[in-house]
Amino acid sequence: PGKSGRMFLLYPLLPWLSLVTLGMWLGRKLADREQGDRALRWAPILGLGFIAAALLLRALGGFGNLRPPRDGGWIEFLNFIKYPPALVFALFMVGTNLLLLSLLARLSRAGRPLSAVVEFLAVYGQAPLCFYVAHLFLYAATAKLFYPTPTTLVRMYPVWIAGLIPLYFLCRFYRGFKDRKPPESLWRLF
Fold first, then answer.
1. Strand-pair partners of 4
2. Exposed, middle or buried by CB within 10 Å (0-12, 13-18, 19+), for 74?
């Protein structure tokens, strides 16, 4: 991202398209019971492989890194570039998400107490674009109102958690709105 001639690019679409396509493909597999079970069996293996590949590429430097680590610290080692998404960022995040997906699916199927957490989190995942757009405005407004100067992580986390509450209800409302639309409606994409 950045300035290119007269244009200012903040959100590069092309690098994200592959991740969106992967998510849509996996979602279709998970929707089918037989293919979904097979995908969930492979999820932790692929997840660990993606994470290992990301860490190996980061350690080797060069390919896959948009910015090499500045020093030898582990925090800087894990400072992956998100905009535009570096290959190490994409591998690490997709790998982590596959591990979490596998864990949450197992807990949900086992009827463990965490299945309520899975159902709660699913609301956000069933209206992802609504969540994304709304969280930008909500947290920007919150920062302007309550934190006009930079703050600490300790002071930020309670605000972040509190912000998830109205976002939950908004996403739940939007999920219901989408579900009432016909399958070919563009509203179902958001």
1. 7
2. exposed
Q: Give every CB contact of residue 126 below 8 A, 6+ residues apart in sequence.
A: 171, 175, 178
Cα separation, 46 vs 91, in Å, equals 10
pLDDT tens digits, one per residue of 42-63: 999 999 999 999 999 888 887 7
In sequence order, what E strands does the chain have?
2-4, 7-9
Question: Is cis: bond before 84, omega within 30 of 0?
Answer: yes
Q: Which of 83, 77, 82, 48 is nearest to 60 (CA)?
A: 77
The answer for residues whose C-beta is within 8 angstroms of residue 156's C-beta and 6 or more apart is 147
pLDDT by residue (tens digit) across 125-151? 889 889 999 999 998 888 888 777 777
d(Cα 99, Cα 118) in Å, to the nearest integer? Answer: 14
Low-confidence ranges of the chain (pLDDT < 70): 1-4, 9-12, 110-115
Instruction: Name the one residue in this structure whose structure tokens are 């930008």.
Output: 136
Residue pair 95/43 in contact (Cβ under 8 Å)? The answer is no
Q: Could you give the CA distance from residue 141 to residue 135 in angstroms, rounded to a whole number?
A: 10
**H or E, element range at 121:** helix 115-125
| CB-CB contact of 130 with 174 (8 Å) | yes
Cα separation of 143 and 28, whole Å? Answer: 38
